[in-house]
Specification:
Chain A is an alpha+beta fold. In chain A, about 25% of the residues lie in helices and about 25% in strands. Chain A has helices at about 15-30, 35-45, 155, 185-200, 220-230, 280-290, 310, 340-355; strands at about 55, 60-65, 75-80, 85-95, 95-105, 115-120, 125, 150, 165-170, 175, 180, 205-210, 235-240, 265-270, 295-300, 320-325, 335-340. In chain A, the strands form 3 sheets. An 8-stranded mixed beta sheet of chain A has the order 1-2-12-3-13-16-14-15, with helices on both faces. In chain A, a hairpin with a 4-residue loop joins β6 and β7 (about 125). In chain A, α4 (about 185-200) packs across α8 (about 340-355). Chain A is globular, with a radius of gyration of 21 Å. Chain B has 2 domains: about 5-80 and about 175-340, Zn peptidases (Aminopeptidase, 3-Layer(aba) Sandwich), CATH 3.40.630.10; about 80-160, Elongation Factor Tu (Ef-tu), domain 3, CATH 2.40.30. In chain B, about 25% of the residues lie in helices and about 25% in strands. Chain B has helices at about 10-25, 30-40, 175-190, 210-220, 265-275, 290-295, 325-340, and strands at about 50, 55-60, 70-75, 80-85, 95-100, 110-115, 120-125, 135-140, 155-160, 165, 170, 195-205, 225-230, 250-255, 260, 280-285, 305-310, 320. In chain B, strands 1, 2, 3, 12, 13, 14, 15, 16 and 17 form a 9-stranded mixed beta sheet that branches. In chain B, strands 5-4-9-6-7-8 form a 6-stranded antiparallel beta sheet, with no helix packed on it. In chain B, β6 (about 110-115) and β7 form a beta hairpin. In chain B, α3 packs across α7 (about 325-340). The radius of gyration of chain B is 20 Å and the shape is globular. Classes of the chains: A alpha+beta, B alpha+beta. Chains A and B meet through loops of A and β4, β5 and α4 of B.
Chain lengths: ~375, ~350
């Protein structure tokens, strides 16, 4: 199929009520690394009608293949991880009090006073701490350590959970004008985007959608998914921190370490801690954005990693790149994104796939 | 004391090759120029040359004859460098390291971007007696403002420093690991009557985590593997405690912090050096890793070792190797690949 073919309406996706409702369902679900069942069920329900092949692999990745109809189709793997950072109950202190550990990366200082949900039943609880009335000024200078904190489920909740159960923040998705506030936007946004891409997938590629597990603990699901799918091109669709507030503590006020900024469109990666993006793919995305009039930004090269870090090192190598929706307050109880950034990310990915020519990787120029 | 190699005749063609390789820019992920330079040097000698999906240049030399094996030899062609993270209102570019870059060796250094832009590295005012971090440094391209700046976020540069020939010792910003690329190229040219099918891999992205060798080793699927890389030395004032020194021959790696060389491979290498009367040293490196690790862990596991070129001041703009060690490394590598390999 010609890369210049006219796009259908499907290829110009929009974020409307349906998409936001699905994102809300995805974000409000609890799927801490290693126990992604809730999100997996939603994903399976959504993708089964869209794909010729859908399977759940040994680690729990959902691998959904939508086969195109053209000649010389590229096999394009797009990965979005289903798991989120959260907690695991580690010790039962009785009376509904549970010690817990952190799964993935969460700043311990942010835990105190947060409402949480535990297990597949979403048993409500709270991470409590001594009230300010009873603390000394000296105590208030240091953050409480994980060992000093408990999840308090009360007497009603204690019989309904056990050590090993996952827990997460209790935040429910809320629209705030042009923004969305929710937990687990990292990476239910990617999951939602990948579902939309399957809906409007072009015929010129085989779209190998991998809804992966255990990304937050080391890109573990993507590693086996990529081995199984053996793609020619890898794309991780994720969400990345936007630290774009003014530099409150800097003399000259110029924030030089923002990573990404809200309202500036999808963030294209050139390098992170796990991957150096394939330059041919970076140019393909940037050219698409420029020609389609879609705003984009280059994510500041920084540490951190996405599923691309696992995909590109698979088998004999897979040219790979990542695209993320910028998000303030990533890995906290409440992240914040702009609907426009989300829509532009989806538009960019969709338009780029429609234009993808399998000759993009020749001559080799990695 | 070893003889000073400068008193002996040196191979001017080898010196020209080294100069060409070390002066070609190629930070990790930007290896197209150095890959083309290497390909040009070996095209008349290899039986087959290809570039894999990540950009590794893979040259096959010979076919498997009775008693022969599939052998992978890996020398990485990437070097450490910098990537721009932000251009400020006055046109100064902030950056992040590609690979292990020390802020101490950056200050006052000069860089060359892949788009041809040149710049110098400056540093913010430091508190007395504090060491700089990379966050305190910036690249000055001579731009007057951000609009005027010829580089933008994501642009990549390498350090710029000409090759320096000190006679017995050679100095460059990228001896790590272009000197090994030179050794591998010389071996490709010299290799005759090998029973083996030898895959010379000029690997990419070693400095960011052995990434190229990981996929190359999967693709080549060798019976035995050797990395060729530089190693540190303990022969300069008040430095680390290490047995390896310049001018005492190439080093045969026993262990580093990411890799234990297969003892059978070590024995094979030692026996070959002894039989050919090539000076060698045994190497135990407390920190660092090479493509050897990536080869060893490929598929169901591969017996692997590493031939090291002793090198002072690694990851500085002035990495120093011994000319004699380089020549001996070539001899040892050719000898290793020319005979039947019996690992026992």
């Amino acid at each position: 199929m010609s890369p210049n073919m006219k796009m259908t309406n499907n290829a110009r996706p929009r974020i409307g009520k349906k998409q936001i409702a699905l994102l809300a369902e995805l974000c409000n679900a609890l799927a801490v690394s290693g126990d992604e069942q809730e999100v997996r069920e939603i994903v399976l329900r959504e993708v089964k009608p869209l794909c010729q092949q859908v399977e759940v692999d040994a680690m729990g990745n959902v691998l959904a293949t939508r086969i195109g109809s053209g000649q010389n189709k590229a096999r394009v793997m797009i990965a979005a991880h289903m798991d989120e950072v959260g907690f695991m109950l580690t010790q039962n202190d009785g009376d509904g009090l549970y010690g817990f550990s952190i799964v993935g990366g969460i700043d311990e200082r942010q835990l105190v006073g947060k409402a949480v949900i535990v297990g597949r039943e979403h048993i409500p609880g709270v991470i409590g701490a001594k009230a300010i009335h009873l603390t000394t000024p000296e105590e208030r200078k240091t953050a409480l350590k994980l060992e000093q904190l408990r999840i308090d489920l009360g007497p009603d909740g204690s019989g309904k959970v056990r050590v090993g159960d996952r827990a997460g923040f209790a935040t429910q998705l809320t629209e705030i004008g042009p923004s969305i506030r929710a937990k687990a936007l990292d990476n239910r946004l990617g999951v939602a985007n990948l579902i939309e891409l399957l809906r409007g997938a072009p015929e010129n590629i085989d779209l190998l959608a991998a809804f992966t597990v255990q990304e937050e603990v080391g890109l573990r699901g993507a590693r086996v998914a990529a081995y199984h799918l053996a793609p020619q091109i890898g794309i991780a669709v994720d969400s990345t921190p936007a630290n774009d507030l003014p530099a409150y503590d800097d003399d000259d006020g110029e924030n030089t370490r923002y990573n990404t900024r809200l309202d500036c469109g999808p963030a294209i990666y050139l390098m992170d801690g796990a991957t150096i993006a394939d330059r041919r793919l970076a140019e393909w995305l940037m050219k698409t954005a420029e020609e389609e009039g879609i705003p984009y930004q280059i994510r500041q090269p920084n540490p951190g990693g996405t599923d691309a870090g696992a995909i590109h090192k698979t088998r004999s190598g897979v040219p790979s790149i990542s695209v993320s929706v910028p998000q303030r307050y990533c890995h906290t109880a409440a992240g914040l994104i702009r609907k426009a950034d989300w829509e532009n990310t989806l538009r960019l990915l969709s338009a780029a796939l429609w234009r993808l020519d399998s000759k993009i990787l020749t001559p080799s120029e990695a | 004391m070893t003889k000073t190699p400068s008193t002996k005749a040196r191979d001017e063609a080898l010196l020209a090759l080294i100069k060409k390789l070390v002066e070609t820019p190629g930070p990790s992920g930007q290896e197209s120029l150095i890959r083309a330079a290497v390909a040009e040097e070996i095209k008349d000698y290899a039986d087959e040359i290809r570039t894999d999906a990540l950009g590794n240049l893979i040259a096959r030399v010979g076919t498997k004859k009775p008693g022969g094996l599939r052998v992978m030899v890996s020398a990485h062609i990437d070097e450490i460098g910098l990537m721009v993270t932000h251009v400020d209102a006055n046109g100064f570019a902030r950056f992040i390291a590609i690979g292990g870059v020390s802020p101490l060796t950056c200050i006052g250094g000069r860089v060359l971007f892949m788009n041809g832009t040149r710049g110098v590295i400056g540093c913010e005012r430091l508190e007395p007696n504090t060491a700089p971090t990379l966050e305190k440094l910036f690249i000055d391209t001579g731009a007057l403002s951000s609009d005027d700046c010829p580089v933008r976020v994501g642009d990549v540069c390498g350090f710029e420093r000409p090759f320096l020939d000190l006679g017995a010792h050679l100095v460059a910003k990228s001896m790590d690991d272009r000197i090994s690329a030179a050794v591998a190229i010389q071996a490709i040219r010299a290799l005759k009557d090998s029973p083996h099918e030898v895959f010379f891999v000029f690997s990419v992205q070693e400095e960011v985590g052995l990434r190229g060798a990981t996929t190359a080793a999967y693709g080549v699927n060798p019976d035995v593997g050797l990395a060729v890389d530089v190693t540190r030395t303990g022969d300069t004032p008040r430095t680390i405690k290490m047995e390896v020194a310049l001018d005492k021959g190439p080093a045969i790696k026993v262990r580093d912090s990411s890799f234990i060389a297969d003892p059978r491979v070590v024995n094979w290498m030692v026996a070959a050096a002894k039989a050919s009367k090539i000076p060698y040293q045994l190497e135990v490196l407390e920190a660092g890793g090479t493509d050897g690790r990536a080869i060893q862990l490929a598929h169901a596991g591969v017996p692997a070792g590493c031939l090291s070129i002793p090198c002072r001041y690694i990851h500085s703009p002035s990495e120093m190797v011994s000319y004699a060690d380089v020549e001996n490394a070539v001899k040892l590598l050719v000898r290793l690949l020319s005979e039947e390999i019996k690992l026992g």
